[in-house]
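Hi all, long-time lurker, first post. I run a small reading group and we've been trying to get comfortable going from sequence to structure in the token notation. Rather than ask abstract questions, I figured I'd post a concrete chain and ask someone more experienced to write out its structure so we can walk through it together at our next meeting. Sequence below, copied exactly:
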Amino acid sequence: MPINYRIIDNKKYMWDGKIYDNESDALNIASGYKKDNFDVQLISAEGGSAPGGQGKYLIYTRRVATATQTTS
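-- Answer (accepted) --
Happy to help. Here is the structure in token form:
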């Protein structure tokens, strides 16, 4: 089972909990996360950055929380 989080460039990314069978499925899901303002890292399940085409893929995401102004 993959680890739940990874530190990439001194930033903590959380695994989305799914293992994708191919790069195209992973990229499709990753684009949805990007539209929702997440930073996304696509990782080959065999380790390292996704090379481009074969094997299983993992998606790790992060989003910086922003302060919201409340009205009273």
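A couple of things your group might point at:
The first strand starts at residue 5 and ends at 8.
Helices lie at 23-35.
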